[in-house]
UniProtKB/TrEMBL annotation:
Protein's name in the database: ATP-binding protein
Organism whose genome encodes this protein: Streptomyces ardesiacus
Domain Histidine kinase/HSP90-like ATPase intervals: 11-132
Span list, region Disordered: 149-170
CDD domains given in the database record: HATPase_RsbW-like
Keyword list, A-Z: ATP-binding, Kinase, Nucleotide-binding, Serine/threonine-protein kinase, Transferase
Length: 170
């Protein structure tokens, strides 16, 4: 496999584009050798779905398109991001039990942490933002285990505390 692979697609900010974004991401990962039924592929599918949904729903019509970017570096890490042209960064909302939405970024943060990755939000030069995750990549045949976590264990932070995805970063 090449040392560096990149793929991107720009889609209209329309609810139907969320499914297209998921399909594109999974198809790209398959081209790069990751089976569609792999845990990492399922994680990326969910993250892309959440980020694309946010780009459609929360840009208030001010971002006519969004772009899904995938980058694989040296068979070591995978970056997945969604860029839109709205300047407002995502806000962590309190997720009430009865609430139908507001949990997307919490889910993304939790999944990313489970794989030993990280979540980033950066402004673009054009005044928008990119919300991205970076995850470890294992070549096909070598499973990706969540960093520092074995079956039946809870995720632990570097400081030794339990990872609580609902708690903001310090």
């Amino acid at each position: 496999m090449a040392d560096h692979l990149e793929a991107s697609v720009t889609l209209p900010s329309d609810p139907a584009s969320v499914a297209a974004a998921r399909t594109y991401a999974v198809g790209t990962l398959a081209e790069w050798g990751l089976p569609a039924d792999a845990d990492l592929c399922e994680t990326v599918r969910l993250v892309v779905s959440e980020l694309a949904t946010n780009a459609v729903q929360h840009t208030l019509g001010q971002s006519p398109t969004f772009t899904v970017n995938l980058v694989l570096d040296r068979d070591e890490r995978l970056r997945v991001g969604v860029t839109d042209s709205h300047p407002r960064f995502p806000k962590r909302l309190p997720a009430a039990v009865q609430q139908d939405n507001g949990r997307g970024m919490v889910i993304i943060r939790w999944l990313t942490a489970e794989y030993g990755g990280r979540l980033r939000v950066r402004p673009t030069r054009e005044g928008g933002k990119t919300v991205s995750i970076e995850l470890p990549w294992a070549p096909p045949g070598r499973p990706v285990a969540p960093a520092g976590v074995t079956a039946g264990q809870s995720a632990v932070t570097p400081a030794g505390g339990l990872l609580d995805p609902a708690v903001p970063d310090a």
